[in-house]
Amino acid sequence: MAIHFNRILPNLYVGTVPKTFDDVERLIREVGVTAVINLQTDDDFEWYQVDLTKIQQYYEKQNIEVMRKPIQDFQLEDLRDKLPECANTVDEFARNGHIIYLHCTAGINRSPTVAIGYLYSYLGYDMEAAISVVKTSRICDPYLEALYSAKFNI
């Protein structure tokens, strides 16, 4: 399955895991990605047979900065607890002028939730507006309970 992603903001894209060098090339060519935030766990990579080392080496070769922030899939508490830190990572990359690709495995739960958290905690969107922006941009199912219960520093 080819990579699938959507634009949330001019500098923020959310989508599926890049599995191949062609996927990375497409991100560079189509959106000018300069930073990747990966929310997958080692178990995700093993299950979906993604060679993380090769992909990370390829990112490095392409001068793409990568930050891993593993969040357990379908684990509301893990997402809630890590959400503020992940939103902060998005903000740091954004403040440094990066075009960011934020992904989990399918781009349906974890990465859209983090994108909403970023819009809410760093860009001043109210929660409902942040949810609307992301859900209008990408078919997804963010974890609203994690968003409403996370401890954002705003």
List keywords for this structure.
single chain; 154 residues; alpha/beta; Protein-Tyrosine Phosphatase, Chain A; 5-stranded mixed beta sheet; 7 helices; 14% strand; globular
Précis, in short:
This protein has helices at 21-31, 42-47, 52-61, 76-95, 110-122, 127-137, 144-149, and strands at 5-9, 12-15, 35-38, 65-68, 100-103.
What does this structure look like?
The protein has 154 residues and is an alpha/beta fold. A five-stranded mixed sheet has the order 1-2-5-3-4, sandwiched between helices. The mean pLDDT is 94. It has helices at 21-31, 42-47, 52-61, 76-95, 110-122, 127-137, 144-149, and strands at residues 5-9, 12-15, 35-38, 65-68, 100-103. The longest helix has 20 residues, at 76-95. The protein has seven helices and five strands; from the N terminus they run E-E-H-E-H-H-E-H-E-H-H-H. It has one domain (5-148): Protein-Tyrosine Phosphatase, Chain A, CATH 3.90.190.10.
Mind describing the biggest β-sheet? 5 strands, mixed
Mean pLDDT reading: 94
Strand order, biggest sheet? 1-2-5-3-4
Q: Identify the CATH architecture.
A: Alpha-Beta Complex
* Principal-axis shape: globular
The number of distinct helices, counting runs of at least 4 residues, comes to: 7
* Helix proportion range: 40-55%
Task: Give the H and E element order.
Answer: EEHEHHEHEHHH
Please report the first level of CATH classification, the CATH class: Alpha Beta
Record field, number of beta strands: 5
Number of domains: 1
| Residue share in β-strands | 5-15%
CA radius of gyration is 14 Å
| CATH fold-level assignment | Protein-Tyrosine Phosphatase, Chain A
State the low-pLDDT regions, or none. Answer: none
Distance between the termini: 39 Å
Give the CATH superfamily.
Protein tyrosine phosphatase superfamily
The computed structural class is: alpha/beta
